[in-house]
Amino acid sequence: MSNFVGDLNLKKYEDYVNVFDSLSHPARIKIIGILAEGRQYVSELARLVNISRPLLYMHLKKLETARLVTSALELSENGKAMKYYALENFELQITKELLHQLSETIVIDNPSGNH
User: Fold this and answer.
1) Which pLDDT value is given to residue 12?
2) Which residue in 73, 76, 79, 98 has the most C-beta neighbors within 10 A?
């Protein structure tokens, strides 16, 4: 398993769950597509995705948790704090073999005892 997301070498299924979860919404795929062209200021990013800033922040939090994006706070010339987001460099290859390896480490508890 040689998948890398940012500085994270994905090894455990929990690492993959965060990435899969972060990629499970069209708005987050759109955000990644926009950031692939270069970093963006949060207000401009919200405009480009066509969603509110609070909703954008919710999506960005998921992407940050998976380490697919990073943020940086910068001061503008007039002293205003501006938050920028950038896409991390990552490479993912999902194969049936990878999913098989991950599945072998997953234990699903069945509290009712039914199978």
Assistant:
1) 77
2) 98
**Is the Cβ–Cβ distance between 49 and 63 less than 8 Å?**
no
The answer to whether 3 and 37 have CB atoms below 8 angstroms apart is: no
Q: Which helix (H) or strand (E) holds 13?
A: helix 13-22
SS3 sequence of 52-94: CHHHHHHHHHHHHHCCCEEEEEEECCCCCEEEEEEECCEECCC
Q: Which two tokens stand for residue 45?
A: 């990013």
Domain 4-102 of CATH type 3.30.1330.10: no
CB 43 within 8 A of CB 19: no
25-45 per-position pLDDT tens digit: 999 999 999 999 999 999 999
Q: How far is CA 21 from CA 15, 26, 40, in A?
A: 10, 11, 23
Q: Is 22 exposed, middle or buried (0-12, 13-18, 19+ CB in 10 A)?
A: buried
